[in-house]
Amino acid sequence: MSGDEVTEQEEPLDLAEEISKDEVALAPSDTGDPTAIVEAKIPQDIRERYEIYSYRNAATILSETRKAEFDDLLKALRGFKITPKMIRTAGGNESDIPKLFSATLGPLGWHETVVQGDLLVKLTWREPTGAVKNGKRKGSPRYGAKSRELTRKPHLD
User: Helix count (H) and strand count (E) of the chain?
Assistant: First the structure.
């Protein structure tokens, strides 16, 4: 290489940027429902505006067993429009995007909900009981039921 040649070097990536690229899914995982199911359950006008993925039969379950709620969601999606300004504006506790959803779904009885659950573990076993004399058991073996409960709070939050 002569002194006149200039080599182009790649700019080093910011570590946070590199990590965030690895954490973002660019396509649905293999566990997603077949496209035919989404196409059968989600109206075409919604599919034309949004990328829709269904997991664990969500599209079928919502559309078939929760028809009123499903219709509420479709109505909200039809009236929903994200602007570049909304994306760029910091929201503090809540940006304009979820506020828009809240304004549409709130009057219909939809509210942000936190689901919490504790885990209760019950342990049961049998221990030998009965009289012991000089380190030896007397009589026929008897067993008594023993149990103990453990609670993990919160297990699900």
Answer: 7, 4
DSSP strand pairing (142-156 vs 117-129): antiparallel
Give pLDDT, residue 88: 85
125-128 own/partner pairs: CB under 8 Å, 24+ apart:
none
Cα–Cα dist 79/84, whole Å: 16
Average confidence (pLDDT) per 10 residues, the chain, 157 residues:
44 54 67 91 95 92 95 91 85 79 88 90 88 71 88 87
Is pTM beyond 0.85? Reply is no
**Any idea where the domains of the chain sit in the sequence?**
21-70, 80-126+150-157
Are 109 and 66 within 8 A, CB to CB? no
Q: Return the pLDDT at 58.
A: 93
Cα–Cα separations (whole angstroms), residue 81 to 12, 50, 72, 73? 36, 11, 16, 14
First and final CA of the chain: distance in angstroms?
Answer: 61
Kindly state the helix (H) or strand (E) to which residue 101 belongs, with its residue range: helix 96-105
